[in-house]
Every structure is written in structure tokens, then in C-alpha cells.
Amino acid sequence: MKFLLVALNAKYIHSNPAIYSLKAYAKAHVREPELEDGRFQIETQEYTINNQPDEILKDIFLRKPDVIGFSCYIWNFSYVLELIRDLPKVLPHAEIWLGGPEVSYDAPEILHREPSVYGVMMGEGEETFSEVVRCYLEHNRGNLNGRSSSFQAIDGTAVRDEEGNVVLNPRKTAVDMNSIPFFYKNLEDFENRIIYYESSRGCPFSCSYCLSSLDKSVRLRDSSLVLKELDVFLENRVPQVKFVDRTFNCSRKHTMEIWRHIIEHDNGVTNFHFEISADLLNEEELELMSHMRPGLIQLEIGVQSTNRSTIKEIRRTMDLERLKERVAKINSFGNIHQHLDLIAGLPGEDYQSFRNSFNEVYEMKPEQLQLGFLKVLKGSYLWEKTGEYGVKFKEKAPYEVLSTRWIDYGGILKLKALEEMLEVYGNSGQFRTTLDKLHKEFETPFDMFEALAEYYDKQGYLRISHSRMARYEVLEEFIYSRVPEKRSLYRDLLVYDLYLRENLKSRPVFAADQEPYKDRVRAFFEEEAAAFRYLEEGYEGYEARQLIKMAHVEVFRDGRAVLFDYKKRDALSHNAAAYEIGVWRK
Question: Mean pLDDT, to the nearest integer, of 353-370?
Fold first, then answer.
């Protein structure tokens, strides 16, 4: 017998730890000979939502499972539904189970609506899945008479009885975090993918839009286990480990043990991602962070809104002034990437209020400002308040907000266009020098991105997928339309940003002519090849003609000559080191 656990991820680089955790837990806790000798197989298979449904259907069919379990989230549920409606036509005897947050809060409704689904596992699935596996083992042995009676007795499930009626059982108690086996022993299966790691479950806060707020029993995996498991990633030089803990720093002792360990065992490569509440950080933690290798950790910090009334309405606990102070302190270290989040469409926040929130967070100078839109999650407190708030949202997952009492659909559309500009020009990090200057031409940074979005819309650019070079050219056009008298200044800033990222073979049409400086550039690199003054590690043994291809000298309109060193990059921005090497005149 074969039980196939299926995940549909948003991207290939993502992985789904849930299905691996279910398999590992069952194999560790269901001590039955059929599992050990292979007569009962538990297989895992990951796809992406970019795979063609027909290809996924074909692959599942060829695997010939007897039972199929799908891991369901807001980003993949519509794809799962399409599959489960077609699978019975090609695998009529295979039973289908669903699990995950997207089906945990309306399981009976899903069973009534989707006749092909036999059962739903609700909430944390490790123990529930193990019980389901035991039932299938007993049925295979012929020890159970009632086809459905055994499944009806499993807490944490909603299943059909013999007559097809839905039986809803109470949720299981929370899983002991220390009882879950480490499932990353064979890292070859996760090559070129982000490693997701869980050292705690639950959240101490009660944010109304979040399902984590429903589980306030924060449970920590024992640090002795965590540190051993992190060593596996460090020893294998895994590029990134992303902690999925909802509030990683809710336990100071737990946080400090892990941070001290990754500092002491730093391999110079692995990056660790943590979602934290910055206002909880104390001086001891900040002092430790200041000594970390640049790029060792990155932080995701949820601000969501700076409107005090909104923060109170969504039942969020946050000391905004302390958060700002902590973010500024971390910025001063120059070694930690910070990713700050905002949510548009929250109760009490209109367009102007969101503009204020955006500007306050932008001024905190994060490496990335993530502008998300409210998702009305089934089971959340906000879901229950949609009528009171006048929240209209999409019928299809991910149930994104369309309008509220405070912001209409037109406002949401404007923010959507602004979000695109923020991603392309702000969060890409490719235009930082230019934007640092440009936003001062507007009343606020929000107004700059808003005007850029309006320009894109007017020119019909929002519907076009531009190349990277085209993005620079469009931004140059936009700047000229706003401040034509400063065209030369901004053209140079754009070229500066361009060469910070890479030594381009082709140049933008607005770049200054470099022909008059060819001999001077060649002479500079001949001097460098003879006795390095600027270029150091990685350039030894190369001749001038080779160095010219490996590094770049750009002479700007004011005569400043700048050397871009691509072997020496900033660990956070990934920009090349840049040195002013003099003022050269034609």
C-alpha cells in the first residue's frame, strides 16, 4: 500500500517541511513491520503551482498511490481543488485526504462541497497522520470491520461515515516539539532549495488577521536538539536556513543560545533568516548582533501599520517607538539585512493613513519594505469581523482584500501599482543611489512611488515585462519628465547604480561618452597590474588587459573617475566596492 503526500509550492526553490515532518513522525512513532519492510510506503512529492496540472495529474497517476494527502495553503488551494476533482477519474480507488491551515477551519464545509475528499486532518498533523496510517494498516490486515468507524474515532479529523455523512472530531492537543524527528538528514533532496526550519510553534500575540494567534501555547524545541540540527546545515554549508517560527525572539534564552551558537560555528556561507518582534530586543541581544558576520542573519520584522488606532483594532502588541529605535540601532551595525512588512487594507487605515505608515517605515531605511495586502484567512478573528469592517475580499484563495469601510477598490488598485514600483525600483536594491536623491524631489517617498506608478500606467508600461536595462531607461524618462533641469545629474546616478551591480558589456543610451578616457583607463589598469593600490584580493597575476574586463572605471560628467571592484562586494546589498580615483578632464 502506498500513501503519497503531495505539496504544491509557489516556487521551485521553496520546499514544504510539513509533508516531510508527517512522514518522519509516522515512521518514528508507528512501529509496525509493514512500514519497516516497505509493504506500506509513505512517499513525498513536491510540485509547484507553475507546473501544468496535466503533468502533475500524470505524475501522480504513474506513482499509483492508494491514498493521496494534499498539503493545503492559501497560495495553492485553487490548484489542489483542480487536481482532486480530476484524480478520481484516473485513480478511482485512491482515497484523498487534505490537511493544512487552508482546510483546518471549515473542514465539514469542504467535505460537503468536495465529494472526492474522504477526510480532512485539522491543525498540527503529525499525531493525526500517524493515527490515520495505523488505521490503514489495520484495514490492510483485515482487523477492522467497519470501513469508516476507525477513522471516525481519530481526533483532529473530519471524515465521512458509511452513509456519507460528515463526522467532525475535536482537535488534537498540541504536538510535543521534541518528539518530531529531524528530517533533513539527506540534504541532497533539498539541493538548490531554501531550508525551512522550525524551532518553535505558536505565537504569544493575538493579531486578528493571523492564524498563529489562535495558538498561544508557544512551544520550544529543546535547544540541545536545535543546536545539533543547525550543525548539520553549517557542516554542509547550506546557503540559507529560514526559521519559520512566528516570533523567533519570544524567548530570550532560546534566542541567545541559537545566536551564540551560529556565531561560534559560523562557516562564512550560511545565512539564517528569522521573523522577530524588534521591540522585544534588549541590549544584550543587540550587543551580540553587532558582532555577527555581515550576512550571517537577516531579520523579517512585521510593522504592518503605524496607525495607533489600527494597531489597537487588530489586537497587535507593538511599541512602535521602541521598534524604530531598535531598527535604527541594527542599521548602525551595517551587518544585518532588515526586511520590514506593511499590510494594506487593515481596519481603520484609509489611503492617507497608509501613506503615512509607508513613509514612517521607509524612513527606517530597511533593505526591503514588503508591501502586502490583507488576506482574510478562514478561522481568524478578522474573518469573523468582515461584516463590521465592510471588508470585501476575493472569493478565490488567497482571499485578498478588495475594499473596506476605509479604502475603496480604486485605492487598492493604486496601491497595487505602487507595490510593483516598490518591488522593481525599491526592493531590488538596484537603484538605491538614485532613489536616495530622487525621493527628496517629492514631498514624501510614497509620493515618489505613487507618481512613478502613475507614469507607468499613463505610458502603458504596467502591462509590459521590461528588461533590466529598460527599467533604467524608463526611470530616466520619468525623472526627466519631473525635473528636466537635473537630467545630467540623474543620468550619472543611474549609471553609477548600474555599474555597482555588474560590469556591463552594453551601456544605456544616456551614459556619458567614455571614448575620451580610453587611454587614461588603460594606463590606470597598467599601474594597478604593476602595484595594486585599489584592487587587491583575487586580482593577483592578471595583466592590465585582463583587469579591464574584470573591473570597471567610469568617468562621470563632472569628471569624477570611479573604480568598481566586483570581487569585493557588500554582504547586504551585493553591490561592488566603489572608489573615487580622481577627477579626470577631457
Answer: 97
> By C-alpha distance, which of 252, 326, 335, 256 is closest to 292?
335
Burial of 69 from C-beta contacts in 10 A (0-12 / 13-18 / 19+): buried
CB 301, CB 338: distance < 8 Å: yes
- Domain C-terminal end among 426, 459, 491: 491
Q: What percent of the chain has pLDDT over 70?
A: 98
Rounded to whole angstroms, the Cα distance separating 432 from 369 reads 13
- Report long-range pairs for 420-424 (Cβ below 8 Å, ≥24 apart): 420/453, 420/456, 420/462, 421/449, 421/452, 421/453, 421/456, 422/369, 422/371, 422/449, 424/471
Asked if residue 348 is part of any domain, the answer here is: yes
Do 392 and 253 lie in one domain? The reply is yes
Are 69 and 97 in contact by the 8 Å Cβ rule? The answer is yes
How many domains is the chain partitioned into structurally?
4
Residue whose cell numbers read 561592488: 576
Q: Which residues pair with 553 in a beta bridge?
A: 563
132 and 198: one domain?
no
Quick one: pLDDT at residue 143?
59
Cβ-proximal residues to 487 (8 Å cutoff; 6+ apart), any chain: 479, 480
Q: Is the pLDDT of residue 34 over 90?
A: no
Q: How do residues 145-157 score in pLDDT, each as one tens digit?
A: 545 568 888 999 9
Q: Rounded distance, CA 461 to CA 210, Å?
A: 35
Contact 221, 197 (CB under 8 A): no
Q: What is the pLDDT of residue 215?
A: 62
In a domain, 176, yes or no: no
Check residues 407 and 146 and name the one with the higher pLDDT.
Answer: 407
pLDDT classification of 162: cutoffs 50, 70, 90: confident
